[in-house]
Design brief:
Blueprint: H1 3-26, H2 32-98
Helix pairs in contact: 1-2
């Protein structure tokens, strides 16, 4: 729960307690509808407390999902990098074929050895 949510929750509790106190103090001294309205108003801050706890739970769930997605994204990035390396290695041979065998990377595994073995 964030600092703002805690502050709101404390304020909601304070308002609910104050309205409950006012309801008890006015019982019998004012019309019944007024006392019932005050009692109903004392329950409304409870909805605010429930709302703040639900929001805090949703924030925690979103944080967990973001962390999981971050791990999946890191794994996907590694897989994409490996695929890109394989394509670059294959591109070396593609350049060799398209350049009429004049350009070939020295580190390519498919490079024929033209050499001193004659």
């Amino acid at each position: 729960m964030s600092r703002g949510s805690r502050t709101l929750t404390v304020l909601y509790v304070a308002v609910a307690l104050w309205l409950s106190f006012c309801t008890v103090r006015t019982w019998g001294a004012v019309p019944v509808w007024s006392t019932l309205a005050m009692a109903a108003a004392a329950f409304t801050p409870v909805l605010g407390i429930v709302r703040e706890t639900v929001i805090a739970d949703e924030r925690r769930a979103v944080a967990v999902l973001r962390e999981r997605e971050g791990r999946r994204a890191a794994w996907r990035d590694e897989a994409v990098a490996a695929l890109a390396r394989a394509e670059v290695q294959a591109a070396c041979c593609e350049r060799w074929w398209t350049s009429c065998a004049t350009e070939h990377d020295p580190g390519c595994a498919h490079r024929p050895s033209w050499g001193s073995t004659a």
